[in-house]
From TrEMBL:
<dbReference type="InterPro" id="IPR036388">
    <property type="entry name" value="WH-like_DNA-bd_sf"/>
</dbReference>
<keyword id="KW-0238">DNA-binding</keyword>
<dbReference type="GO" id="GO:0005829">
    <property type="term" value="C:cytosol"/>
</dbReference>
<dbReference type="InterPro" id="IPR000944">
    <property type="entry name" value="Tscrpt_reg_Rrf2"/>
</dbReference>
<dbReference type="InterPro" id="IPR036390">
    <property type="entry name" value="WH_DNA-bd_sf"/>
</dbReference>
<dbReference type="GO" id="GO:0003700">
    <property type="term" value="F:DNA-binding transcription factor activity"/>
</dbReference>
<protein>
    <submittedName>
        <fullName>Transcriptional regulator, BadM/Rrf2 family</fullName>
    </submittedName>
</protein>
<dbReference type="Pfam" id="PF02082">
    <property type="entry name" value="Rrf2"/>
</dbReference>
<dbReference type="GO" id="GO:0003677">
    <property type="term" value="F:DNA binding"/>
</dbReference>
Amino acid sequence: MKLSTKGRYAVMAMADLAAASGSGPVTLAEIASRQSISLSYLEQLFAKLRRAEVVSSVRGPGGGYRLSREAAEIRISDIITAVDEPLRATRCSNAKGCLADGRRCVTHDLWDELGRHIFLFLSSVTLEDVTERRLLGSASGALGRLDRALELDLSQEAAQ
């Protein structure tokens, strides 16, 4: 599965915003400069992030963008979803299947499950985890939360 620049740049920009937001609103020009992302591309991404209420804008002198809620409450999956980044690993473009005759390919379930695990992982990581570099090494970090989420998911499936 390949995550396009849309999703990667949105997460990079949001991490930059979270890290710099202690001093008030942050302009897209500042983010663009620090992250080497085109300003016009950031404008498109932040329009989507604002519509999804992940960020809010402040107009006027000293204006810019700020997080709409605490970084600990914003999941990476929220950001990816807000910019319309698909999180599927299958090649299916419709609900029917991967193959020309509408059937699913033999590996469809494998890639579908991989997509679910990627989404679970991105849902277990907060923007604060990224900015505080808490992704590896502890049970309280994102991977520990992912393990608990997978255990819960598996127990719910077994109960059904």
